[in-house]
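Exam revision sheet. Question 4 asks you to relate a sequence to its structure. Input first:
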Amino acid sequence: MATAKKLTDNHLTCVICTEVFTDPATLQCNHTFCKSCLLKYTKTQSEAIQATSIPCPSCRQQTKVANPDSPVEERVSQLKPSHVIQSLMDDFGPGTEAPETGECSGHEVVVLSESTTFQMTTKRPFICKHHASKQIELFCKDCKMAICTICYSINHRKCDDVDTIENITPQVKEQLTKRNQELNLRIGNIKHGISLNKKHGDNFRNKIEETKSQIRNTRAKVVELIMKKEKQLLHDVDQSCTEYLHQIQTDIESSEIELQMYQQQYEFTVNSVTSSCEMDMYAVYESVCETSLDSRITDNRPAPGRVVFTRNIDKLSKAVDELNLGDVKIVQDRESIPTLYQTIDCMEGHDMADPALHDLAVLAVDGVKEVVVVVDCNSKRLNIYYTSAIHCPKYIQLSDTPCRLMKLTNWQVAVSVPGSNEIVTVKVYPHPVILSTIKTNRPYFGLGCLSPSRLVAGATGWTDILDLEGNVLKSIKTGKVSIPSYIHVTGNQNLILSNGVFDSLVSVTREGEAVFTYTPTGDRSLKYPQGITTTSTGDILLADKDSHKVIQLTESGQFVRDVLTAQDGIGHPCGICLDTDGFLYVTCGNAVKVFRFD
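Answer key, C-alpha cells:
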C-alpha cells in the first residue's frame, strides 16, 4: 500500500491542481497534466496560442499538435497519456480499490464515526512549478520567490537572504493581513467616493437642468423685449403711413373737384365759339376775361414718399454678440468639508530615522496615472510614489539638500538645490531620471513656474525670472516677503509668496506690482507660513506650519476659513498641493496626507 501511495503521489498527481490526474495528457517532454488544467494554463499564454502549440507548465517546452489551426480546446483534446501513465492510471487511478491504509495523496484522511466531530481540512502539497517532484521548502527574500532546494542550488546560490518557508510564513501572513486591511480601507474609501460621486452627479444634473431653465428664461425675457420693440416699430410705421396716405387721398379728392370745374368751363367755351349766336360768344368772353388763369402750374401736392427702416447690420450683429445674457462655469463649493482619504507613509523603506518633507507636487501622467513627488531634505533626494504601487517608491538622489519643488509639465518637475546653486529638472515617468542641472548665480530657495520655459525663483533679497539656462531675465520686488521660500503662480500669472520668518502672505504681479499683503493679527496671526496652492475658483490655500492649519483666503486675500486644523490630524504642515480631481495633498511629519472634499 505504501508503494501505491508513492506511485500516486509521484507519478499520478497533476502539479497544477495537485490532485490525481483527471483525463491525463502527456506532452512531448513527457510531462503529464490534467487536460482541463493544461487547457486553462495554455489560454493564459498568448504567445503559445499565436504559435499554435502547447507549452509545458513545468519546462516551457512547446508541443506541436497534428492540427495546429484548430482551436486550443481541440488541440489539447488531441493529446493522449503515455502508455506508462495510462497503465498506472488503470491500476491505481480513480475507480480502482482504495488503499487499505486510508491514505490519500495530498489530503489528511480521518475515520468518521457517529461520535466524531469532523472538521474538513485541506492540505495540498506546495509543489515547485519548475521541479514537479519537489515541494517548496525555502523562500528567497532577495528575489521574493518561494523555491525548492533544487531551485536554490541552481539559481539562488548567490542570493544573500534565503529562509525556510516555516520561518517566513508568519511574516508573509502578517504582510498580507496588513495589505488586506489597507485594501479594505481603500475599498471603503472608493465605495464612499462612488456613493458621493453618484450623489454629486445627481445633484449636478439637477443643477444643469436648473441652469438650462435659467438660460431659457433669460432668452425668453430678451425675446420679449425684442418683440416689444418690434411691436413699437410696427405701430410707428402704421401711424406715420396712415397720416401720409390720408393727406394724399385728400389732395386727390380736391384735384378731382377742380378738374371737373375746369372741364365744364372748357366745354362751355367750346360751345360758345362754335355757336352761331355772337351774343352768346361775347357773353362768355366777357365772363372769362374777368377771371384770368395763371399760366403757371400750381402744385401743392406733397413730395412722393417711401417708408424707410434705418438699421446697421454690423452694429446689430456686434450688439447681439455683446449681449450679456450671463456666464456659465463650474465652481467647487467654497465651504466643502475635507475628509482624510489616504495616508502615504514616507517612512516605509526609508533608511533614515526622520525624513524632512518640505514640499511636494502631484502629476497626472498621460491623464491617468497619478505620481506624487516629495522633497526629502534629510535624505537629499526626491521620493516618487506611483498610485499603482504606492508602497514601492522610487528615488532621485541629489548632490545637495533640495528645497522647493514645482511642476513643469505632466511628467517633469524642477527642484531648487540652493547649497550647490542649482535647479534640477527631473522626469518622473515611467522611471525617474535627471534631465538637466541648471547652474545659477544665486542660491535660490523658492521656486515657481510661469511657463515651461520661464521660472521664478526666490533668493535672499531677490526674486528673479529665469530661463531654463539660469539666465536672469528680470528681477521684481516682493514687498514684505523679501526672501520668498515658497512661490506659487496663480492662473492669472500673479505670484503668491511666503516665508516662515515673516508673518505675512504677499501677492504681486509678474511685473512686481502689489496685489495684496495678508498680515492678520490676534488669533488669526500667521505662525510660520509655508506652502501655497490655489483652487479652481481662485481661492488660496496656505499651510501655516506652527499653527497646524491650512487656511483658505479669497483671491484678493480675504480670510474665508480654517480648512484643516490639528483636529483633522495634521501637524506642522509644509508642502501643499491640489490635483486635477480636487484632492488636497499635505506633507505632515513623516507622511503625506490626502484629503477629499465632500
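Marking note for examiners. The first helix runs from residue 2 to 11.
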